[in-house]
Design a protein that fits this description.
- This protein is α/β, with parallel strands linked by helices and 267 residues long.
- The chain folds into two domains: 119 residues, no CATH class; 112 residues, no CATH class.
- Strands 2-1-3-4-5 form a five-stranded mixed beta sheet, with helices on both faces.
- The protein is globular, with a radius of gyration of 20 Å.
Length: 267
């Protein structure tokens, strides 16, 4: 942890960055995002197993971007998000630094997309054994069981949009749910509105989600939104041999048209 604090002090003192976005003490044993703008504040930084939030969500916030060049404390999901945002032309190379602490507390500084790609490819980017187990339990359900499963979970949805706020890839300046001419998604938190909102959001993330799980952690009523996203991650990999967040320049499975596509419906 001290290596991370020293690196933050060094970068800020040298004015190599203007802000370090990392983890600090939250309520109880939780961790929260902190925005360190001077070397004197670097002692607030923490890094341990409780640091799970994907801090890449702040990369697209105008109020954070205007602070200046950023160093971002990055867990594996954060690195994949940086590459996914780069592939969607939302951030530019050399615009930020990624600070990657390891289990021993040593910090690796990654300054380019190429360096991040080289680091990410060495990691296990597949679903974990626990995630695969959860997904397998879902996949053996019949269609009627799946419908009941999601109806039960979506019936609790408050339409609070905490999942959208937590997701680093929900960066549209105006979301579909805020469009009312026409009204694409019903506003009330009723069965149809909840179903349409959650399915629409999942489809917008298909081929893009990097599986950080922040949507489920943010949900105040415990809807397993990660399961829906992981199902789509699995389908995209099976049918398109594509994983999101692996390269700064990449075609996206759900938004790439090829004239020789085998399916006729797209013509």
């Amino acid at each position: 942890m001290e290596d991370l604090r020293n690196k933050a002090r060094e970068l800020l003192a040298a004015k190599a960055v203007q802000v370090v976005v990392g983890y600090g003490r939250g309520t109880g044993a939780s961790r929260r995002a902190v925005f360190i703008q001077s070397a004197a504040e670097a002692g607030e930084l923490l890094f341990d197993n409780a640091c799970r939030q994907n801090l890449a969500v702040y990369l697209m916030k105008p109020e954070v971007r205007k602070l200046g060049k950023m160093a971002l404390v990055a867990i594996p999901a954060t690195l994949r998000t940086i590459l996914q945002l780069a592939s969607e032309n939302q951030i530019q190379d050399l615009e930020l630094l990624a600070l990657v602490p390891d289990a021993s507390g040593a910090v690796t500084q990654l300054a380019t997309f190429a360096a991040i790609e080289a680091h990410v490819v060495l990691q296990d980017n597949d679903l974990s054994a626990a995630e695969k187990g959860e997904l397998q339990k879902y996949e053996i359900m019949g269609m009627e069981q799946r419908r009941q499963f999601w109806e039960e979970h979506f019936s609790r949805c408050l339409k609070c949009y905490a999942c959208r706020a937590a997701c680093p890839l929900c960066y549209c300046s105006r979301c579909t749910v805020e469009c009312n001419q026409p009204q694409w998604i019903p506003v009330p938190a009723h069965d149809l509105g909840n179903l349409e909102w959650n399915i629409m959001r999942a489809m917008h993330l298909a081929g893009r989600c990097i599986n950080c799980g922040d949507c489920s952690r943010a949900c105040p009523v415990g809807i397993p939104l990660h399961l829906l996203n992981q199902k789509l991650i699995s389908e995209v990999y099976t049918h398109f041999n594509s994983r999101s967040g692996m390269a700064a320049k990449a075609d996206h499975a759900m938004s790439t048209f090829k004239p020789n596509d085998a399916e006729d419906f797209i013509r």
